[in-house]
Design goal:
The protein contains eight helices and four strands. The protein is α+β, with helices and mostly antiparallel strands. The two termini are about 35 Å apart.
Length: about 220
């Protein structure tokens, strides 16, 4: 279907309202900076509005393509709005499991998800290095419980004699922690990050001076 809307008309439309193109496709304008595409459909007697993206990112042509794909799903009996909601709920449930998981569980899950992409050597080094150097200290802790002082404790014995190994272990720990915290949590600072405090405390720790490592805020749960 060609549709009622024209590209120039769409580009210039800033008056608030719902502008139909046909077959359930609407341009919904709330103002000059808020113009979005939506697909309107009914399923089991219920009206649904399925977002197709903003006008800034989705052209009229692409919105029609998305509308047609959504129509096919609805015709097949799929409530696409409910399916999207269920997917979000599933992601939140997975994030809750990750937040409650121990570091060892998170690490094993990360390795399982990525080892197929690694070389045999890399796939062998990840679990063996974490088992030897990380798990004894932080393996039983939840991500939110890990502090920079834990990282200092587990790396200190190998920081001088096995510097390359210690850097790899620290980086792997940092990656696993980062994978299991909220990406939008601006207050969180990864306890395995190679900060100036950590470097300085390795120096002071070698000389016998007191080691003081700052506590960072507990990370928020990850969400989708």
């Amino acid at each position: 279907m060609a549709g009622k809307l024209k590209p120039l008309e769409v580009a210039q439309q800033v008056t608030p309202g719902k502008y139909p193109d046909g077959d359930g496709l609407y341009l919904i304008v709330a103002g000059p900076t808020s113009r979005n595409w939506s697909y309107r459909y009914w399923i089991k007697g219920k009206e649904r509005w399925h977002g197709l993206g903003s006008l800034q990112d989705v052209s009229l042509k692409d919105a029609r393509i998305k509308r047609d794909a959504a129509r096919q799903e609805v015709r097949a009996g799929v409530d696409i709005v409910q399916a999207k909601r269920s997917a979000r709920e599933g992601a939140r449930a997975e994030a809750a499991v990750a937040a409650a998981s121990t570091f060892k569980e998170c690490a094993e899950r990360y390795i399982k998800d990525n080892e197929a992409k690694w070389s045999k050597k890399h796939a062998a080094q990840w679990p063996s290095s974490l088992k030897q150097y990380a798990y004894p200290t932080i393996g039983h802790l939840r991500i939110a419980e890990i502090l920079p002082s834990h990282i200092f404790e587990l790396l200190k014995p190998i920081w001088i004699e096995k510097r390359e190994t210690s850097n790899r272990v620290r980086g792997r720990i940092e990656t696993i922690i980062a994978k299991n915290v909220d990406i939008d949590d601006n207050e969180f600072r990864n306890p395995a990050e190679l900060t100036k405090q950590l470097r300085e405390n390795f120096r002071s720790g070698r000389s016998g001076s007191p080691v003081i490592i700052q506590r960072y805020p507990t990370p928020k749960r990850r969400h989708s």
